[in-house]
Design brief:
globular; 439 residues
């Protein structure tokens, strides 16, 4: 069964209606009329897919998956795409600008095969990082794409696998060494040196692809009066109060030094042993996310209604240690897990996981390592005792995290990575989290 058929008929119909409505407005988005191929913006497609199917938008900095759909225990990562013409064609699927020099060097030194192997390894590595971020398996994810022909949209679905390194074939050098092409028996790929892009061939006739639906798009000759009338009509209607999300960002480095400190934050595992006089090392995944004082001054209401009043209450508390006030909540990871967490240390400077009472699925108490296991090891890929630096983070396309919660819910906070510079932009009131390249 395709993923499309796991959604209800009502959801599928709503998605199609939104696509038809947007396609009908195509003349709003082009200067020259007469083009009968309807227009579809990829960001609108992403938003409306999420809205119609109750899915989560998980795209950060051109990460491999745009949307996450959950069906019971099944978590499906979905790449969304749209382009003109339904004939088989190569489309861009991953940008590797950060690896441009390395790939060129491998190609010039070792030839086509080694270069293609390295390109495939990099693509697979980035895919696996996203699997760990979102809690995905490697064989259930899909591309959902909409091709656009004269007067119609065609909705398609195909598998979205890793590249099989053991089945590489048809390795070729094309266009005077400006591109490489290959197959792994399931998909056809090419890599273009000029823009450091991996391309994949999409063909609805292949066994792992299918056409889900075709429908007519009636392009409105002059959509502007409709737009204006709808806007004016909306102004006259009473506003409906909605439970909005509250969103902030935190750095994975020290806001003061602009670097990851050697014995704190993501390097807390490098601090002295907790057992005085002992030489035993702390676990590699023992970390905390630093919370700058400047953040609390600007957003004192995010973790609790008033962080400074909370601090005062802690200072004047005279009861038992076990009942001392704490800022505790569940931190929801993108992979579907939730971990008990808290804001702690002097000046409320640390966001870390930990619980004295709750246990994970293996019966272990949630400790300071739970957050670090996901963030530092599973996703960012730190496997040995190498100091984390800001350059190391940025080589993976990130140096910040995004946090959000429902407006009045302090018990559940959600977290995901954010592109490079997100925290600084956030503090300067100029956040734009669609730039950059994660992983």
């Amino acid at each position: 069964m395709s993923i499309w058929n796991k959604y209800t008929k009502g959801q599928r119909d709503e998605y199609i209606k939104f696509l038809q409505a947007y396609g009908a407005l195509s003349n709003m988005f082009r200067q020259k009329k007469g083009d009968m191929i309807p227009y579809l913006d990829s960001k609108f497609q992403e938003t409306i897919y999420s809205k119609a199917f109750g899915s989560q938008i998980v795209d950060i900095g051109n990460s491999p998956h745009d949307v996450l759909s959950i069906f019971g225990d099944l978590r499906v990562g979905i790449g969304l795409k749209t382009w003109m013409n339904s004939t088989p064609s190569f489309q861009k699927v991953m940008q590797l600008k950060k690896f441009q020099t390395e790939i060129r060097s491998v190609f010039e030194r070792s030839g086509i095969e080694e270069a293609i192997i390295r390109i495939s390894e990099i693509k697979n590595s980035r895919m696996k990082s996203d699997y760990n971020r979102l809690g995905l398996t490697d064989d259930k994810n899909i591309y959902h794409y909409v091709t656009r022909d004269e007067g119609q949209f065609v909705v398609n679905e195909c598998s979205y696998p890793l590249i099989n390194l053991n089945s590489l074939s048809d390795l070729k050098e094309t266009n005077n060494s400006s591109a490489l092409s290959w197959s792994d028996g399931k998909k056809e790929y090419k890599f273009t040196f000029a823009d450091s892009q991996i391309w994949q061939k999409f063909d609805s006739s292949k066994h792992d692809s299918s056409i889900l639906n075709k429908f007519e798009i009636k392009i409105i000759e002059d959509p502007f009066p409709i737009l204006l009338n709808t806007y004016l009509s909306a102004l006259d209607k009473p506003k409906i109060e909605q439970n909005t999300l509250v969103e902030v960002y935190l750095p994975l480095y020290s806001y003061q030094s602009k670097e990851v400190e050697e014995k704190s934050g993501l390097n807390a595992w490098n601090a002295s042993s907790k057992n005085k006089g002992s030489s035993s090392l702390r676990p590699l995944n023992e970390i905390y996310i630093p919370i700058p004082r400047e953040f609390h001054k600007k957003y004192p209401w995010f973790f609790t209604k008033n962080i400074f009043q909370f601090e005062e209450n802690q200072k004047t508390y005279q009861g038992t240690l076990e009942n001392k006030p704490e800022i505790r909540f569940y931190l929801h990871l993108p992979n579907g897990k939730r971990i008990p967490s808290l804001v702690t240390q002097s000046n409320m400077k640390a966001l870390q996981s930990g619980s004295n009472t709750e246990r994970d699925e293996n019966g272990k108490k949630f400790g300071q390592s739970a957050l670090g296991q996901w963030l530092l090891i599973d996703v960012l890929g730190l496997n040995d005792r190498k100091l984390v630096t800001r350059n190391w983070l940025q080589s993976r396309g990130t140096d910040s995290v995004r946090l959000w919660r429902e407006k009045d819910d302090y018990n559940n906070i959600y977290i995901d990575f954010a592109p490079i510079g997100s925290f600084e932009s956030f503090m300067n009131n100029e956040i734009d989290n669609n730039d950059g390249e994660i992983w």
